[in-house]
Amino acid sequence: MERLGFWRRRGAALLLRSRGAASVKAHLPARAAFDIFKAGSIKGVRGEGMPIYRNPLEKGNLYIKFDVEFPENHFAGREALQAIEVFLGEQRSDDFEQWSVGDSVDVVDLLDYDPSSQNRRQEAYHEDEQQPRGSVECAHQ
């Protein structure tokens, strides 16, 4: 597995390690805005990983591992919590509607990570690469 900062590459799959939801929040579609990601949970985006060897038009999957650190109960007093609320702003359900889909925003579905299905796909690609390729020969007359 090749490490690229917060990114890791495993075959055609690209894994992203996210610390906290703030960096991901702006990119999540509205339907996923209120999903709860537990520490260590992994979600995938189909077809957004690394290009497949010898088939650059097809891509592997992108997997995101969420490292979430929750504070202990009663970690702050009322004044501190109000200051945090002012800093974060009022939560509204339409916050994600302000993002327009275009060059810098893609709407994708987050899938649950299933390592066994990823292994089956990689095995199929390896089988394709290992099969001998026949060449066309000219018939002698």
UniProtKB/TrEMBL annotation:
<dbReference type="InterPro" id="IPR008971">
    <property type="entry name" value="HSP40/DnaJ_pept-bd"/>
</dbReference>
<feature type="region of interest" description="Disordered">
    <location>
        <begin position="117"/>
        <end position="141"/>
    </location>
</feature>
<dbReference type="GO" id="GO:0006457">
    <property type="term" value="P:protein folding"/>
</dbReference>
<dbReference type="InterPro" id="IPR044713">
    <property type="entry name" value="DNJA1/2-like"/>
</dbReference>
<dbReference type="GO" id="GO:0030544">
    <property type="term" value="F:Hsp70 protein binding"/>
</dbReference>
<protein>
    <recommendedName>
        <fullName>Chaperone DnaJ C-terminal domain-containing protein</fullName>
    </recommendedName>
</protein>
<dbReference type="GO" id="GO:0051082">
    <property type="term" value="F:unfolded protein binding"/>
</dbReference>
<feature type="compositionally biased region" description="Basic and acidic residues">
    <location>
        <begin position="120"/>
        <end position="131"/>
    </location>
</feature>
